[in-house]
Specification:
The chain is α/β, with parallel strands linked by helices. Helix content is 24%, strand content 22%. The protein has helices spanning 3-10, 22-32, 64-71, 115-125, 144-152; strands spanning 49-51, 77-81, 90-91, 103-108, 126-137, 157-160, 178-184, 193-196.
């Protein structure tokens, strides 16, 4: 699906929902966790994790990040989604919730239209030295508003997916490149380290 057509289809898609491909999350997690510079506590399977835009429609599919993290042994995962037909434990608007200092890791694929707000809130909500990980378009680096944001909130790592992702059941991809952006709270590097995976 072209990015143009996908953008149009989003207008008809409630809460901007597309299931994140689990194989892409697994690919990222494998690369991220072999990074010798990450905090070792990330290997603790009991860390507190939040998925604030969890998706996972009832009767259709599971929550992608939860499914993958469960495979890696993580079980202490809280889930939030604005949709009432989601499998998330908490139904509501993450942007209006008080979650400050409760989580070691906040990870999601945020709706593009509110992604910057989700990132800002997650950076506020995660514990010191904790991680915020967001799947975003590579062109999320562009834009005047985001340029100002990067000055004080540069990600530590950007894992660029070399293979185009399919968010639809037919397996078709669009013209958009994606990356997992990783922030470590308390760190504001001048430049992000980029790895193509």
């Amino acid at each position: 699906m072209s990015s143009t057509n996908r953008s149009k289809s989003r207008n008809f898609h409630i809460a901007d929902y597309y299931k994140t491909p689990e194989n892409a999350i697994e690919e990222f997690w494998n690369e991220f966790t072999v990074n010798k510079d990450i905090n070792k506590y990330i290997y603790n399977k009991n860390i507190k994790i939040l998925e604030p835009c969890a998706g996972g429609l009832i009767g259709k599919d599971g929550m992608s990040y939860v499914n993958v993290l469960n495979k890696f042994g993580y079980k202490n995962i809280s889930t939030i989604d604005i949709r009432q037909d989601s499998l998330a434990t908490i139904k509501g608007d993450y942007l209006k919730m008080d979650c400050k200092n409760k989580y070691d890791l906040i990870i999601t694929n945020p709706p593009f239209t509110i992604a910057l707000n989700v990132i800002k809130k997650a950076l506020n909500d995660v514990k010191d030295n904790g991680y915020v990980i967001m799947l975003l378009r590579l062109n999320f680096l562009e834009g005047k508003a985001r340029k100002e944001f990067w000055k004080d909130n540069m990600p530590k790592y950007i894992y660029v997916h070399s293979k185009r992702m399919s968010f639809t059941n037919d397996g078709k991809t669009d013209s958009i490149a994606y990356a997992h952006y990783v922030w470590e709270k308390g760190k504001n590097p001048d430049m992000a380290m980029i790895k193509v995976i």
